[in-house]
Amino acid sequence: MAYETILVETKGKVGLITLNRPQALNALNGQLIGEVNTALDGFEKDAGIGCIVITGSEKAFAAGADIKEMQSRTFPETYLDDKFEPWDRIGQRRKPIIAAVAGFALGGGCELAMMCDFIIAADNAKFGQPEINLGVIPGAGGTQRLTKAVGKAKAMDLCLTGRLMSAQEAEHSGLVARIVPLADLMSETLKAAEAIASKSLPSVLMAKEAVNRAFEVTLNEGLRFERRIFSSLFATADQKEGMAAFAEKRKPDFKNA
Ligand code: CO8
């Protein structure tokens, strides 16, 4: 597949997607979101891939959905033609996805980063939901995922004023997992992705599913879910291998089985 708006590579067991519309600060148009989904489909099907990374440029992860593409849209077009469906699919992937964010992650760019499982930010990253400045509100999960990540006070502040938040503020408020110097963003993110990809894939997928469950159900339901899938992992050869390797003081050789 020839991509025009993204670059797609594999680095060992890691699938890397680089958003690549530099002339528009990686503004997320329909073509780009479609291409991201095509690349994700490929990585999800590829048994050799254990973790995915989405990144942008040093100046911008993505400065939002493409305003020029949206500007003349009418209400029926926006509501009836389900432009949200491909965005939703990014957030519903089974394999872990890390967002490596440098520069602007604004509007749909911040929402895309939040659809990933966690965010590693360069020290120059800036996050925000500035849609209010355009006479609209976040439309791809910003009011929901941001609120769950940083709480009501800061989500209201960001969504109502449209101000941007530094990487440091984003880390303190729980949006970002780690901050690294800009020059180390890709090496540190790939190191984290390789660490994930070296584990047993069934346990990685189930850990992701279980953490995400915490956002959907009560504590007791979540605990029941966790116990059921914890128990089910004892049916895998990788559980036997992982625990035998610990006892024998050697590295496990997981077979994703
Ligand atoms: N859409 C389209 N083009 C953009 C966008 C964007 N979001 N952001 C930047 N660009 C373009 C600029 O128009 C400019 O192009 P040109 O050179 O042709 O004029 C080029 O990128 C460079 O941008 P600037 O000259 O503005 O660069 P600066 O460094 O001066 O400023 C900013 C950088 C502050 C990031 C500025 O570009 C900006 O404010 N961008 C818009 C940020 C924004 O409002 N984002 C939210 C967009 S709305 C949204 O994301 C809703 C999501 C809903 C998803 C639901 C889908 C179904």
TrEMBL record:
Pfam families: ECH_1 (PF00378). GO terms for biological process: fatty acid beta-oxidation. One of its GO terms (molecular function) is enoyl-CoA hydratase activity. The keyword Metal-binding does not apply. It comes from the Bacteria. It catalyses: a 4-saturated-(3S)-3-hydroxyacyl-CoA = a (3E)-enoyl-CoA + H2O; a (3S)-3-hydroxyacyl-CoA = a (2E)-enoyl-CoA + H2O. The keyword Lyase applies. SUPFAM superfamilies: ClpP/crotonase (SSF52096). Keywords: Fatty acid metabolism, Lipid metabolism, Lyase. Its EC number is 4.2.1.17. Belongs to the enoyl-CoA hydratase/isomerase family. Could possibly oxidize fatty acids using specific components. PANTHER family: ENOYL-COA HYDRATASE, MITOCHONDRIAL, ENOYL-COA HYDRATASE-RELATED. This is enoyl-CoA hydratase. It comes from Bosea thiooxidans.
